[in-house]
Amino acid sequence: MTDKKPTPKKSALGKGLGALLQDSPQKNKSESLMPSYPTAGIFEISLDEIQVNPYQPRTHFDKDALQELADSILTQGIIQPITVRKLDENEYQLISGERRFQASKIAGLKKIPAYIRTANDQQMLEMALIENIQRENLNSLEIAHSYQRLLAECNLKQEELGERVGKNRTTVNNYLRLLKLPPDIQAGLRDNKISMGHARALINVESIDRQLAIFKKAIQEELSVRQVEALVKSINGDREEKENKKESPLDPVRKYEITKIQQRLASHFGTKVNLKSDAKNKGEIKIPFHSTEDLNRILEILEII
Asked: How many whole angstroms separate alpha carbon 73 and alpha carbon 204?
């Protein structure tokens, strides 16, 4: 390597991650060990000196895809450096780039180009999750778990999370709602047996047994998202019709208004909302929650906490 410092380049990452890569006001062991490397500097580091990232959100790496990347590295070299933090003398930890790291080992490389950053454990988690969400082809369930970890372990509010990942609150909620589905359906989503569109439709079915029944039918009959949505709408329509028969009939205009309000509330809170009103304009609003985290999310939206 030469002593000439490379010209700093603007980051192609989102604003949130760019802010994270600035020096933290909190001093820690990693910071005290950091030499005066330029922010955009690229350095050759021995693969044996690098530890894998314990905060890596991706749980599965395709072996064939890794081999293809390894073959490409042998031909083209490492086009995009990995990012690491310094733990100790000759000891580093991955922040991002585990596929490149693993493929380089398969390719038989001894060293790899890397950016060296300063970060504490919480920043490591946040950087790793956000970088992978923005750069890697994560499936929707992995993204949902990453969002959940950012909220729970990095103490982010939903609005802050949306800013970090460049998504609005509704989109974030749509991913988080996937985690309310039964394990069998989550596994089907993870294994690409159904799409996120199928899963989002199934969330609107209250009964877990009915969710699973529709899920199995969708796989067996290879139903499209629209077909599943129609099936869910039919089931929910039958249920609502039975409930409405027990109540005093509403004026058609008033019934339409109530339905529209209920839909807006469901979109705002990212969960199914039950709104009931009788002919005397008396009623109730029910917002179900499925865990303490889900309750806190709703309370945040209501600005109660």
From this structure: 46
Q: Which long-range contacts (CB under 8 A, 24 or more apart) does 24-33 make?
A: 24/118, 24/119, 24/120, 24/123, 26/120, 28/120, 29/87, 30/85, 30/86, 30/87, 30/118, 30/119, 30/120, 31/118, 31/120, 33/86, 33/87, 33/88, 33/89
| Cα 135 to the center of its chain, rounded Å | 12
SS3 category, 51: strand
For domain 15-138, the CATH architecture is Alpha-Beta Complex (3.90)
**CA pair distance 299, 294, nearest whole angstrom:** 9
Q: With 70 as the cut, is the pLDDT of residue 253 above it?
A: yes
Rounded-to-integer distance, Cα 119 and Cα 93, Å? 10
Decide if 20 contacts 123 (C-beta within 8 A): yes
Per-residue pLDDT tens over the stretch 82-102:
888 888 888 898 887 888 999
Nearest to 180 by CA among 288, 77, 23: 288
In the chain the first and final C-alpha atoms are separated, in Å, by 53
**What pLDDT does residue 140 have?**
86
From 31, 49, 68, 98, active-site residue = 98
What is the DSSP secondary-structure string of 99-122? HHHHHHHHTT-SEEEEEEE---HH
**Shortest CA distance to 266 belongs to which of 177, 134, 149?**
177
Q: Is 131 a catalytic residue?
A: no
Q: What is the dihedral of CA 44, 45, 46, 52, to 10 degrees?
A: -140
Class of domain 183-246: mainly alpha
Contacts of 158-162 with C-beta under 8 Å, sequence gap 24+, read 158/297, 158/300, 158/301
